[in-house]
Amino acid sequence: MRYTLVAGLCALMPLFTISAQPASHEMRPTSTSTTARPTGKPVARVNGAVLTDRDLLREMFTIFPYARQHNGGFPKAMEANIRSGALKMIEFEELVYQEAERRKMTVPSAKMGRALVDFRKQFPTDQAFQEFLKTDLNGSLDVLRAKVERSLLIEQVLKTEVTDKSAISAAQLRQYYDKNPDRFKTPESLTFQTISILAPDKATPAQLKDVRKRAEDVLRQAMATKNYEEFGVLAEKISEDDYRVVMGDHKVVERAKLPPEVLAATGSMKDGQTSELIQIGQSFCVLRLNAHTAAGKQSFETVKKSLREELERSKTESLRSGLDKKLRVGAKIEEL
User: Mean pLDDT across the stretch 244-263?
Assistant: First the structure.
């Protein structure tokens, strides 16, 4: 679950926004189901408070914003899960809001004023803003104010119960690092490029002879290269494996995952050296070793930023889930 003030205020925006740019072919879902325009029909009641199909659809758009570009079209295979997740989220938000009311929380007038100004800035023109008020809020600024206040109160509860409690201290971070050494071990690895000459399936003796002849010619050319770029250009030109499109670069590969023929050939090589012909099956390759990294362990300084983000994200999700379960105890929730 997630909730931020930005998400809460954006949820007030018009339901159907058509993108000014056509979606790319690569991003287009193969099969979509167009959701009917909402009418205000109830979809759930939370302790008597009614949640409508407008609330639900806005949350579905938050989960899958791409659907806005298709006037409400969600991938058929995903729609049921998106709807279910959205329904649980709007129920959670309503429970959090009711908790804020129970605690008699209020929003400072200055904070409310800033939030209203920020919300208004999301509209390109005053006409667009007025149209939104008319179609979504019955033309009422009071209704808008109430919805913005609701978002701020939800944010306030979540800050107290989730955000503030999710922070990981420097001591906790270091403790986790020290107690989980295996997570930060790095295996021995090689970084290398290859140029390959491949034998055809069921190759004849004559074909195999030709493969070796071409491989020996490749070896001579590869030995003449002086650096990564020259070897890579040669790989792009003559290699027959899939890595030719990236200058023959295999990036970092764990030593344990390499075939024995490659291990034997690279055992005594130094960084920057080019191997002799390596035969694997009936095919050949030439390898340039770019780096040999011994097994080791990532330093605390190297991992602490990403580790803090990971641990705080995990703690946030755990706290939100726990808050959701706590608020649902004794609550009357009806899904219609």
Answer: 93
Cα torsion through 105, 111, 113, 116, rounded to 10: -80
How is the beta sheet containing 283-293 ordered, strand by strand? 249-254, 189-197, 283-293, 278-280
**CATH superfamily name and code, 5-167+311-335:** Porin chaperone SurA, peptide-binding domain (1.10.4030.10)
DSSP 110-170: HHHHHHHHHHHTTSSSHHHHHHHHHHHSTT-HHHHHHHHHHHHHHHHHHIIIIIHHH---H
Percent of the chain with pLDDT strictly greater than 70: 88
Measured torsion, CA atoms of residues 144, 81, 84, 315, in degrees rounded to the nearest 10? -80
Q: Is 271 left (phi over 0), alpha (psi -120 to 50) or beta?
A: beta
- By the 8 A CB rule, do 332 and 44 touch? no
- Domains of the chain, by residue range, sit at 5-167+311-335, 188-294
Q: Which residues contact 186 (CB under 8 A, 6 or more apart)?
A: 293, 295, 296, 297, 298
Q: Indicate the SS3 state at residue 295.
A: coil
Q: Give the separation between CA 325 and CA 319, rounded to whole angstroms.
A: 10
* Mode of pairing for the β-strands spanning 73-75 and 49-52: unpaired
Do residues 61 and 67 touch, judged by C-beta distance below 8 A?
yes
Q: Write down the pTM of the prediction.
A: 0.67
140-159 pLDDT tens trace: 899 899 999 999 999 999 99
What does the alpha-carbon distance between residue 94 and residue 56 come to, in Å, rounded to a whole number? 12
Whether residue 16 is predicted with pLDDT greater than 60 in this model: the reply is: no
Structure tokens at 168: 């990981």
CATH classification code of 188-294: 3.10.50.40
- 294 — phi, psi (to 5°)? -70, 160
Of the candidates 220, 186, 189, 185, the residue with the CA atom closest to the CA atom of residue 289: 189
The two three-digit tokens of residue 61, written as one number? 């758009």
